[in-house]
Every structure is written in structure tokens, then in C-alpha cells.
User: Fold DUF1499 family protein from Acer saccharum.
Amino acid sequence: MASMASSSAYCYCKKYNRSYNDYKLPRIIRCLSQQPNNNKPNNSKPTNTDQTSRREIILRSSEVAVIGAIFNLSGKKPEYLGVQKNQPALALCPATKNCISTAENISDLTHYAPPWNYNRGRKNPVSKEVAMEELLQVVKSTKPDKFTPRIVETKDDYVHVEYESPILGLVDDVEFWFPPGKDSIVEYRSASRLGNFDFDVNKKRIKALRLVLEKKGWASEENF
Assistant:
């Protein structure tokens, strides 16, 4: 057990039994509003002021903020994002269970997701340019699981969005691609940068976006 002290407050800390990337995470377990007085009798009772100050310190202290300041939980942007050159398609998923992609084989129940069709649900077909504007509008206005979207790259046929979690600042990469042709198809890929499991966050995000797009005439090519 270690301790941290300052002129106005001190905290006792201990380390988690678990580690993150071989680093032990500190956890504040007790905070007081002033320096400890070793000469103060152990049976003395705290005053109302001490209790209020202690409560304020505990409420303002955040383990999440400490972890976020020490570790870069946003992760590094993968170098393989974008439309692949050898065979035009979005990238496949890693073996971890925190990614879905329309580029996967349909037999891969963990990673495969069906593409979208932006004209399947409407009587009057729209152009790719109109569909792109609809997609960007929905991405900006929809926050599945309260993740904040940030569009980092747009092209005539491609969009890359970073979704940041509200607490730890974890980042997921979501891509949309309009392949050439007259089939009105939109491919996509949604993947977490860190971890091995996503508790279906990526799948729920894609579904939430699709449900909003369906009101504009979009549809999934298959049940998902």
C-alpha cells in the first residue's frame, strides 16, 4: 500500500489485483481533507467540516480520470483501414470478437454483417451522392450507446468515423464504402481498437444506424 500527500489533501492508494497491458492500476480507497496528524488521538471524532470536505474530495475524485490520464485508451489507428488495393473491399476482422464487416464470409457468424441497399426501401431511387448525404446526416445525429461520432475522412465513395466512448475514451473505427456499380450497395466495417470482446457494441451501433436510415428508404440486404 502506498500513499500520496499534498498540503490540502492526502490519499491512501492500493493496486488492483488485475493489470492492464502489464501496468498495475492505482485505486484511491481513502481521502482526507488535510494532512494526517500523527499526534491526534485515534478516538477523536471528525467534525462536520471534515466530513463535508472528505465527501467533496471523494465525489470529485475519479478512478476513470486517473486511468485515462495515465494510459492512452483511445488506441492507435490501424494502418490497414480503407478500401483494400489487392481486392477492392473493406478490411477483414481480426480473430477477436469485437469487429463486424461486410467483407467477411457469410459463414462467419461472429464477424459477418450483410451490406445495406440505399434504394431497396423506396419507390423513387436516389443517387449515390444523395445517399452519402443521408448517411453523413444520420452518423452526425445518432449516438448509439452514447458514443460520440467524429468523421475523420470523407471521399466520394468512402467515410471513416471514430466513435469515442463517454467514460474511458475508447475508440472504435467505423467505415462505410459505396462500391462502384448500379446496385446501390453500401459496405461497412465496425471494429474496436482495444480488447477482445465488445459485448455486441459494434453490432448494436450498426443496427441503430440502419434503423434510422430505414426511415429514409434504406434496407439491409439480409436479416441482421
Notes: Residues 128-141 form the longest helix (14 residues). The helical segments are 48-60, 63-70, 128-141, 201-214. The first strand starts at residue 2 and ends at 5.
